[in-house]
């Protein structure tokens, strides 16, 4: 239910933005990003936190000279992080039995975007930020093969990012970006995960 509510909120916000946009100078946009990610999870050892990630965004930009601003919504896959908690079982009074943990996070985002252009076309700086509704799933199994547990949960956090790009014309542009995502999933390991996503984006405006 939460997933459908969040998608409905994104759709409603973009619908309001698009109805206002008809009377202003601006354009719709859609962009796709291929990226890598780096998730920071406390207490994990032998961590492999570099994973492929990606995002799809759509929205509307209002233009006023060298400045553009607007609203965006989209979906992001932050990839997977794996690692070991070597002492959780031992600290609970059991034998030395390291836990292997695998965590994946995806989610919807809704926020604002800002662009500063240098000339009609050419170089630009961008910034974005807003609400991130995350869906986190985890799988834990122990080294001795005594147990295997899976869990999932949703949560609300934030995202923020910036980028440097180049517009070839009024319709097409590319950029390099860094985005920070704070996701929450109560009951899954530490319950809070911070992920950096860095990659390249191609954008089409119409």
Description:
Strand 7 (148-167) and strand 8 form a beta hairpin. With 206 residues, the protein is mainly β. 12% of the residues lie in helices and 68% in strands.
Question: Short summary of the structure?
Answer:
This protein is mainly beta and 206 residues long. The chain has 2 helices and 9 strands; from the N terminus they run αββββαβββββ.
Identify the overall geometry. elongated
Helix/strand order: HEEEEHEEEEE
Tally of helical runs = 2
Separation of termini? 33 Å
Report Rg. 20 Å
Total strands: 9
Structural class: mainly beta
Q: Poorly predicted ranges (pLDDT <50, ≥5 residues)? A: 19-23
**How much strand?**
over 45%
Topology:
Elements (H helix, E strand, L loop, with lengths): L1 H20 L4 E15 L4 E4 L1 E15 L2 E19 L2 H4 L7 E19 L4 E21 L5 E20 L4 E13 L7 E14 L1
Attribute tags:
single chain; 206 residues; mainly beta; 68% strand; elongated
């Amino acid at each position: 239910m939460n997933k459908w509510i969040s998608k409905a909120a994104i759709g409603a916000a973009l619908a309001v933005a698009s109805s206002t946009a008809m009377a202003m100078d601006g354009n719709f946009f859609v962009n796709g990003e291929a990226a890598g990610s780096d998730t920071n999870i406390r207490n994990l050892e032998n961590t492999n936190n570099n994973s492929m990630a990606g995002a799809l965004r759509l929205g509307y930009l209002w233009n006023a000279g060298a400045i553009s601003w607007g609203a965006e919504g989209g979906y992001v896959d932050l990839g997977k992080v794996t690692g070991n908690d070597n002492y959780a079982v031992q600290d609970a009074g059991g034998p030395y039995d390291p836990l292997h943990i695998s965590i994946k996070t995806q989610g919807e985002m809704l926020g604002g975007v800002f662009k500063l252009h240098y000339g009609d076309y050419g170089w630009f700086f961008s910034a974005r930020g807003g609400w991130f509704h995350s869906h986190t799933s985890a799988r834990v199994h122990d080294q001795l093969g005594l147990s295997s547990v899976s869990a999932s949960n949703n949560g609300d956090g934030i995202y923020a990012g910036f980028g440097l790009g180049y517009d070839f014309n009024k319709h097409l542009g590319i950029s390099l970006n860094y985005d920070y995502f704070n996701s929450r999933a109560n009951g899954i390991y530490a319950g809070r995960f911070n992920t950096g996503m860095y990659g390249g984006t191609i954008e089409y405006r119409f």
